[in-house]
Amino acid sequence: MTGTHWSIQDIARTAGTTSRTLRHYGQIGLLEPTRVGANGYRYYDEHALVRLQRILLLRDLGLSLPSIAEVLDGEQDSAAALRAHLEWLEQERARIGRQIESVRTTLRKLEGGEQLMADEMFDGFDHTQYEQEVTERWSKEAYDRGNRWWSALSEQERKAFVQEQADIARDFGAARAAGLAADSDEVQAITARQYAWLERSSEQVSKAYFTGLGDMYVADPRFTANYDKHGEGTAVLIRDAMHVYADRNL
Amino acid sequence: MTGTHWSIQDIARTAGTTSRTLRHYGQIGLLEPTRVGANGYRYYDEHALVRLQRILLLRDLGLSLPSIAEVLDGEQDSAAALRAHLEWLEQERARIGRQIESVRTTLRKLEGGEQLMADEMFDGFDHTQYEQEVTERWSKEAYDRGNRWWSALSEQERKAFVQEQADIARDFGAARAAGLAADSDEVQAITARQYAWLERSSEQVSKAYFTGLGDMYVADPRFTANYDKHGEGTAVLIRDAMHVYADRNL
DNA sequence: ATAGAAGTTGACGCAGCGTCAAGGTCAAGC
DNA sequence: GCTTGACCTTGACGCTGCGTCAACTTCTAT
Known about the structure:
2 copies of one chain form a homodimer.
Chain A: E1 6-7, H1 8-15, H2 19-27, E2 35-36, E3 42-44, H3 46-60, H4 65-72, H5 78-111, H6 131-152, H7 155-177, H8 185-202, H9 207-219, H10 221-228, H11 234-249
Antiparallel strand pairs in A: 1-3, 2-3
Helix pairs in contact in A: 3-4, 7-8, 8-11, 9-10, 9-11
Chain A binds a DNA duplex (30 and 30 nucleotides) through helix 2.
């Protein structure tokens, strides 16, 4: 402490940061040392300390170093910068909140004795199978709507819904046995029922979702096995049919 | 699509990611291609696709790639990993929440016509001057306690509180005029009053806070001016006295 | 004079890829 | 047989904000 100017360690301690940080700020031009001795040592005065304290304050608010530079150098209106930053912070909090919900859901399943992802995804086509998918792709609200829809169904309606899927799978199996092509009118008619069936619950079936689902039927052995119980090759037929349907209609 | 194995772009599209990501996962050993052709091309089969989908699912939950590897390779209990991750997520959300509060407070001040940081920090020693400090260092609850304390005071009590600070500053000024040393009994007695005064409002005055405050009295011209109105050098005397006091008593 | 504290400039590391750059491969059409 | 154009490869830098060596020089105190 030489009265009016301090060494790098002095201000670092005073401001509660490290010398490395100060050298970093010097490097990016955020806070230059007041004076650099012939020996290369950095020295800072009160003005620098005040600026440093403001920098650290804004940093603790979560602003980026470039933003801080703009604010302190008067290139940016402080209030505007803070408002923009606030918005970003709120989005971040919302995003994390969604992740927390997803993790909690997954944990509940795991602890409820159900098995993770793989094994729970295809038991009787339970509606909850797409929870993660839907949650991620169309946001939680959309999923909640779907969930309410399912919860609102009567036992009979649920059975009918599941049965219809079974019928569709059976008809696909029959079509395959008859040697029908994926783009034939007959198979496309069944595919239309498949689409309608999906639409009843999701109410938002995009092209990507539909074809992706088709691919999964072939790629994932659990799906393949379920469909191929109507004859080997049924899953492939369904996938191809869904692709054709998507290309033509979606 | 050669039936059972796909090119890098094929799975990338199917799973909704990019080829760059897949090569990255290959590089860090998270997901190796099923087969690598003589030409160096990567090929993936259904198993790889399923694994990739699980990876992406966990990634969307916010897990790190190393954590995902541990979970998928069975080295880590899934539930335990998710619980740990959940905790971390909740801390993150809390942290962001605190930042949001700080930013809002700062914005309110800015828009209320008060000026940022610098100019608002020293008008009559308004209690709110330490808001940022206190908020950051001792959490919001501590600050709220302090704020409630101040709000609970009567107008008379507030005036007395401010007056006491003025008296202390005056006495420091007199001590300096008398040529007393910072570590003299007289000056230390005044310093003790300064400490007690601070303690009344903050109720948590750490050594670092006390000495830091002393440094600020000298470093920040606004403080310096306020104290040096009792004679030049008063601020320096106070700082030194506070350091001595802190070393001896805190 | 010499030790120890403090200072300096590089430069790598981290997380998770995006994004060129520079160049090989492959199916298709002329 | 040659040219496109689409797709593939392996580097390697960039981003954020410093932490953390490493290898040296300088200051301070005994």
